[in-house]
């Protein structure tokens, strides 16, 4: 089965995808496809990128379509491929679709540190990077809606939504494989897993007892426990990196409000 991996900026999705490559999956990324198209047309990547940007400014998205068509073809003709791509989940629907989420502060820390390296997009500070990430993600929401009529940040599009704030790429990669096997066995259709340490626990009198699993309320990318404290405490005591949750409600507000968790279910 193929795996499509996407995520918010700074989530570490590329690192996770490359670990899956080391585990035997063929690796496909938008960047690789772009380089292949440039080579086929006899251009350097830089020359081709300049042409594509000029065309896009005129409303010509033909190269986007070529990349999308190539993704679709690979998804239909090949198996055991991991796609590292924003929209592969849409163009390779017969796949295990994963979205990796990360706390915005952690995402900006990662991206800002990467920006200090040579030939990287630079930011004057981490707060400036954080602001830029928010803006870029909101622009993506508008762009993909206009071009494809899809909501990239609607979490119900994915089989597994998993948090990477406090987990290493290798741990996430293994969890994806484990959950894909469970998905193939029919154990679930959609699931969301958070790092237990990232779930905010309010005062005891506001947490419902609950008889099922862990339920959270999301607001602006922050998850607050609604019920299931005993289960959450047990997961923390066991040192679990991931815990399955149900988003019992999603409130507007906050800088991450462009993400839609309201349709996620465990």
Structural features, described:
Helix content is 43%, strand content 19%. The chain has 266 residues and is α/β, with parallel strands linked by helices. Helix 1 crosses helix 8 and helix 6 crosses helix 7. It has a 9-stranded mixed sheet with strand order 2-3-1-4-5-6-9-7-8, with helices on both faces.
User: Low-confidence segments, ≥5 residues, pLDDT <50?
Assistant: none
What is the rounded distance between the termini? Answer: 22 Å
Strand content is 15-25%
User: What is the rounded Rg?
Assistant: 19 Å
Strands in their spatial order, largest beta sheet: 2-3-1-4-5-6-9-7-8
Q: How many strand segments?
A: 9
Order of helices and strands: EHEHHHEHEHHEHEEEHE
Major sheet: 9 strands, mixed
Shape: globular
Roughly how much helix do the residues carry, as a percent range? Answer: 40-55%
Number of helices: 9
Structural class: alpha/beta
Offer a quick outline of the entry:
By secondary structure, the chain is of the alpha/beta class. Helix content is 43%, strand content 19%. The protein has helices at residues 13-22, 30-40, 45-57, 62-77, 88-91, 104-115, 126-148, 169-184, 229-237; strands at residues 2-7, 26-29, 81-84, 95-101, 160-163, 191-194, 214-219, 222-227, 243-251.
Which descriptors would you attach to this protein?
single chain, 266 residues, alpha/beta, 9-stranded mixed β-sheet, 9 helices, 43% helix
Give the topology.
Layout (H helix, E strand, L loop, with lengths): L1 E6 L5 H10 L3 E4 H11 L4 H13 L4 H16 L3 E4 L3 H4 L3 E7 L2 H12 L10 H23 L11 E4 L5 H16 L6 E4 L19 E6 L2 E6 L1 H9 L5 E9 L15
Parallel strand pairs: 1-3, 1-4, 2-3, 4-5, 5-6, 7-9
Antiparallel strand pairs: 6-9, 7-8
């Amino acid at each position: 089965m193929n795996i499509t991996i996407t995520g918010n900026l700074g989530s570490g999705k590329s690192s996770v995808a490359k670990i899956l490559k080391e585990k035997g999956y063929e690796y496909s990324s938008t960047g690789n496809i772009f380089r292949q198209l440039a080579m086929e047309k006899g251009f350097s990547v830089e020359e081709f990128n300049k042409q594509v940007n000029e065309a896009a400014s005129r409303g010509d998205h033909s190269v986007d379509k070529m990349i999308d068509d190539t993704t679709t073809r690979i998804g239909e003709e090949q198996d055991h491929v991991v796609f590292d791509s924003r929209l592969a989940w849409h163009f390779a629907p017969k796949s295990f679709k994963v979205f990796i989420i990360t706390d915005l502060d952690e995402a900006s820390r990662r991206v800002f540190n990467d920006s200090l390296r040579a030939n990287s997009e630079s930011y004057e500070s981490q707060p400036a990077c954080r602001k830029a990430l928010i803006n870029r993600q909101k622009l993506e929401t508008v762009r993909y809606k206009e071009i494809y009529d899809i909501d990239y940040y609607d979490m119900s599009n994915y089989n597994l939504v998993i948090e990477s704030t406090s987990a290493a790429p290798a741990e996430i990669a293994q969890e994806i494989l484990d959950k894909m096997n469970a998905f193939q066995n029919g154990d679930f259709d959609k699931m969301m897993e958070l790092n237990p340490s990232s779930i905010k626990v309010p005062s005891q009198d506001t947490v419902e007892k609950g008889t099922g699993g862990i339920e959270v309320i999301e607001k602006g990318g922050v998850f607050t426990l609604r019920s299931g404290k005993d289960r959450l405490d047990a997961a923390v005591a066991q040192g679990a990196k991931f815990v399955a949750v149900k988003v019992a409600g999603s409130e507007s507000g906050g800088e991450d409000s462009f993400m839609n968790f309201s349709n996620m279910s465990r």
